[in-house]
Structure to design on (447 residues):
């Protein structure tokens, strides 16, 4: 049973709607003016509102903003005579769901109302599934995580730029994805780019695109990620790594809603919401002359700080169970659980690498464990290194090359996995073929 409000100054229309819809099992209220509608909606929440366009004190279209409020917003159907159909179409552009023309039969009324209510049910189901997608990987029930989700709920439907801050490994990209999928742009593209992965012309071209012949190797034109994210969300990870020479161009794109490809003269209009993230203190970079203050304020219209894992120790057990379940699925093995002793041990650790370090530890344990129950010995072994760490060490004045570090890392993982190539590849985050190529590259015996 749905709650329906009928707004019409004709007594016959109010009576017809009330009788037909009440017989159909709905709860119906009826008023004869815009003032009556505002009073009714302030007292009670309605699932659907039937509103005449021609009311004695205000037209139905201008009344729409006062009716389309609440969570969820009610469906509004406009009642119109033939000469005002153009006005009804204008009302639909402002948020009305549909219109029904006078005179209408009981069957037409029932069909129109049932269609609007069915669409609303589908919309609510879609929104619920979208929210589950948005928050699916944001595991935790601590006060800090509940506050974080509340903030995302408030900010998601805005188009304001957001700066997500927090230590490495806290899950800043998960927050950016939640902001996207919980908002009105969820059906459009989420486009991530790591500003520290590319430099100079390459990053310029990646963000803004280029025209053919703009630089050596530009054999064809390419659209940039701003254009790819049009109507969706562009996520600029590690924004603190953005080269100083590109910062004015990003600022102009944010201010004007236009981008100019490398080597091009014509600007392209884009409508992309921008979310940026950093583990750096941008104020310090501003003071050092490495980041523009005006760009910072343009990016940080809203700032969301992701708490480190040490500030929400109550979530460690929930996260560990979740990571064990996901790692078991990836490893195509049966259900894996953690013993109470293992969970207690994990809760005592500081986790300087935050959630990412915990995830690496659990994945290593799942891959290497002999049984289906992870004990303290499984989760207390050598952890996957936090960001910036390496297995190789410096000897004397020798500074190891990247190839030497990678070779030592592969050897250590193979040792941990007792030379099982499939497990080693999983732990390294590469496929088995890539691992074999690396072994040949470094002159290692594949057997």
């Amino acid at each position: 049973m749905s709650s329906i409000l009928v707004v019409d100054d004709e007594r016959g229309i109010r009576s017809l709607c009330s009788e037909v819809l009440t017989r159909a099992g709905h709860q119906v209220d009826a008023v004869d003016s815009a003032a009556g509608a505002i009073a009714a909606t302030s007292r009670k929440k309605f699932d659907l509102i039937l509103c005449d366009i021609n009311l004695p004190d205000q037209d139905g279209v201008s009344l729409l903003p006062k009716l389309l409020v609440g969570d969820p917003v009610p469906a509004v159907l406009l009642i119109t005579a033939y000469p005002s159909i153009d006005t009804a179409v204008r009302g639909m552009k402002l948020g009305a769901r549909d219109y029904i023309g006078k005179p209408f039969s009981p069957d037409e009324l029932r069909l129109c109302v049932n269609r609007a209510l069915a669409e609303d049910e589908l919309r609510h189901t879609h929104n619920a599934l979208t929210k589950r997608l948005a928050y699916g990987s944001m595991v935790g029930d601590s006060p800090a995580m509940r506050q974080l989700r509340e903030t995302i709920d408030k900010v998601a439907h805005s188009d304001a730029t957001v700066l997500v801050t927090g230590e490495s490994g806290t899950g800043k990209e998960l927050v950016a994805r939640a902001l996207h999928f919980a908002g009105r742009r969820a059906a459009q593209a989420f486009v991530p780019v790591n500003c520290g992965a590319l430099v100079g012309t390459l990053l310029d071209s990646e963000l803004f695109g280029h025209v053919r012949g703009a630089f050596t190797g530009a054999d064809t034109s390419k659209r940039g990620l701003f254009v790819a994210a049009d109507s969706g969300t562009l996520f600029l990870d590690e924004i603190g790594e953005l080269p100083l020479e590109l910062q004015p161009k990003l600022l102009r794109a944010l201010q004007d809603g236009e981008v100019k490809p490398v080597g091009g003269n014509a600007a392209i209009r884009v409508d992309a919401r921008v979310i940026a993230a950093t583990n750096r203190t941008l104020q310090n970079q501003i003071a050092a002359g490495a980041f523009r203050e005006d760009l910072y304020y343009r990016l940080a219209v809203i700032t969301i700080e992701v708490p480190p894992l040490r500030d929400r120790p109550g979530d460690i057990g929930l996260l560990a169970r979740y990571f064990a379940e996901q790692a078991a699925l990836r490893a195509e093995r049966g259900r894996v659980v953690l013993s109470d002793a293992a969970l207690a041990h994990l809760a005592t650790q500081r986790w300087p690498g935050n959630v990412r370090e915990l995830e690496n530890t659990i994945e290593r344990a799942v891959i290497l464990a002999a049984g289906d129950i992870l004990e303290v010995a499984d989760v207390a072994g050598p952890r996957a290194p936090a960001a910036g760490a390496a297995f190789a060490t410096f000897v004397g004045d020798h500074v190891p090359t990247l190839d030497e570090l990678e070779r030592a890392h592969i050897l250590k993982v193979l040792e941990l996995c007792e030379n099982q190539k499939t497990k080693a590849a999983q732990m390294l985050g590469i496929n088995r073929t890539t691992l074999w190529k690396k072994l040949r590259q470094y002159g290692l015996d594949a057997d």
